[in-house]
Amino acid sequence: MASSWRRTFGNMRSFVSNSMGGLRGGSNLASWVVAGTLAYFLWIKPSQDLKREQQEKAALAAAESDPYRYVETRKPIPDPQVTGLIYGNKSKDKPTKPED
Protein backbone atom coordinates (compact mmCIF):
# COMPACT_ATOMS: atom_id res chain seq x y z
CA MET A 1 0.00 0.00 0.00
CA ALA A 2 2.77 2.44 0.93
CA SER A 3 4.75 1.59 -2.20
CA SER A 4 1.76 2.51 -4.36
CA TRP A 5 1.71 6.18 -3.42
CA ARG A 6 5.53 6.30 -3.49
CA ARG A 7 5.52 4.94 -7.01
CA THR A 8 2.83 7.44 -8.03
CA PHE A 9 4.81 10.29 -6.48
CA GLY A 10 8.00 9.10 -8.22
CA ASN A 11 6.22 8.89 -11.57
CA MET A 12 4.82 12.40 -11.17
CA ARG A 13 8.26 13.70 -10.21
CA SER A 14 9.83 12.04 -13.24
CA PHE A 15 7.13 13.45 -15.50
CA VAL A 16 7.65 16.98 -14.19
CA SER A 17 11.42 16.66 -14.43
CA ASN A 18 11.25 15.35 -18.00
CA SER A 19 8.76 18.03 -19.04
CA MET A 20 11.19 20.72 -17.87
CA GLY A 21 13.86 19.47 -20.24
CA GLY A 22 15.52 16.92 -18.00
CA LEU A 23 17.81 19.51 -16.42
CA ARG A 24 18.50 19.23 -12.71
CA GLY A 25 19.88 21.48 -10.02
CA GLY A 26 21.51 24.82 -10.77
CA SER A 27 21.34 24.53 -14.54
CA ASN A 28 17.58 24.00 -14.35
CA LEU A 29 17.14 27.04 -12.14
CA ALA A 30 19.40 29.14 -14.35
CA SER A 31 17.49 28.16 -17.49
CA TRP A 32 14.17 29.10 -15.87
CA VAL A 33 15.59 32.46 -14.76
CA VAL A 34 16.82 33.19 -18.29
CA ALA A 35 13.50 32.13 -19.82
CA GLY A 36 11.53 34.20 -17.32
CA THR A 37 13.71 37.27 -17.91
CA LEU A 38 13.34 36.97 -21.68
CA ALA A 39 9.58 36.53 -21.38
CA TYR A 40 9.34 39.61 -19.17
CA PHE A 41 11.32 41.88 -21.50
CA LEU A 42 9.81 40.53 -24.73
CA TRP A 43 6.12 40.23 -23.78
CA ILE A 44 5.14 41.55 -20.37
CA LYS A 45 7.05 44.85 -20.16
CA PRO A 46 6.08 46.10 -23.66
CA SER A 47 2.41 45.42 -22.99
CA GLN A 48 2.62 47.23 -19.63
CA ASP A 49 4.36 50.20 -21.27
CA LEU A 50 1.74 50.36 -24.01
CA LYS A 51 -1.07 50.26 -21.46
CA ARG A 52 0.61 53.02 -19.39
CA GLU A 53 1.02 55.22 -22.50
CA GLN A 54 -2.63 54.75 -23.43
CA GLN A 55 -3.71 55.71 -19.90
CA GLU A 56 -1.50 58.82 -19.98
CA LYS A 57 -2.91 59.86 -23.36
CA ALA A 58 -6.45 59.33 -22.11
CA ALA A 59 -5.73 61.39 -18.98
CA LEU A 60 -4.23 64.23 -21.06
CA ALA A 61 -7.18 64.19 -23.44
CA ALA A 62 -9.61 64.30 -20.53
CA ALA A 63 -7.71 67.18 -18.89
CA GLU A 64 -7.55 69.22 -22.10
CA SER A 65 -11.24 68.78 -22.81
CA ASP A 66 -12.27 70.02 -19.34
CA PRO A 67 -13.00 73.77 -19.61
CA TYR A 68 -13.25 74.18 -15.83
CA ARG A 69 -9.88 72.69 -14.94
CA TYR A 70 -7.62 74.66 -12.62
CA VAL A 71 -4.59 76.29 -14.23
CA GLU A 72 -1.87 77.86 -12.07
CA THR A 73 -1.17 81.32 -13.48
CA ARG A 74 1.47 82.61 -11.04
CA LYS A 75 4.21 81.07 -9.04
CA PRO A 76 3.69 81.05 -5.28
CA ILE A 77 5.74 83.57 -3.32
CA PRO A 78 8.30 81.78 -1.14
CA ASP A 79 8.42 82.56 2.57
CA PRO A 80 11.54 84.72 3.19
CA GLN A 81 11.93 83.22 6.66
CA VAL A 82 12.22 79.70 5.25
CA THR A 83 14.45 80.66 2.30
CA GLY A 84 16.96 82.37 4.61
CA LEU A 85 16.40 85.94 3.44
CA ILE A 86 15.31 86.96 6.94
CA TYR A 87 17.39 85.73 9.85
CA GLY A 88 16.20 84.99 13.34
CA ASN A 89 14.00 82.50 15.08
CA LYS A 90 11.78 80.50 12.83
CA SER A 91 8.25 79.89 13.99
CA LYS A 92 8.97 76.23 14.72
CA ASP A 93 12.02 77.18 16.82
CA LYS A 94 10.09 79.54 19.11
CA PRO A 95 9.62 78.09 22.58
CA THR A 96 6.03 77.67 23.56
CA LYS A 97 4.84 78.64 27.01
CA PRO A 98 3.33 75.77 28.99
CA GLU A 99 -0.31 76.31 29.74
CA ASP A 100 -1.35 76.12 33.39
UniProtKB/TrEMBL annotation:
Protein name: Uncharacterized protein
Keyword annotations of the record: Membrane, Transmembrane, Transmembrane helix
Region (Disordered) location: 73-100
Keyword check for Membrane: yes
Comp. bias (Basic and acidic residues): 90-100
Residue spans crossing the bilayer: 21-43
